[in-house]
Write a structure and sequence with these properties.
The chain contains no helices and six strands. The chain is mainly beta and 74 residues long.
Length: 74
């Protein structure tokens, strides 16, 4: 068991290859679940590099996801 408060978890959001936002993810209270709210600034191809980092050991995990926004919400 690890303490989620001692880890940095976040996502680096890019749109069409350019950085849009560094998004910190908060622990939801459920095992292995973190969340945040992101509002896309417009249509495009987005990627999110989602990471977990333990500053005490330097251990890091990373995964990427791609999603397409066709129409921005008004």
């Amino acid at each position: 068991m690890w303490n989620a408060d001692k880890f940095e978890v976040g996502a680096i959001i890019k749109r069409n290859g350019k950085k849009v936002e560094d998004l910190p993810l908060k622990y939801t209270g459920k095992k292995s679940q973190f969340s945040a709210t992101f509002t896309p600034p417009g249509p495009g191809v987005y990627t999110a590099a989602v990471y977990g980092y333990d500053p005490a050991t330097g251990n890091t995990g990373l995964d990427n996801v791609t999603f397409i926004v066709k129409k921005a919400k008004k």
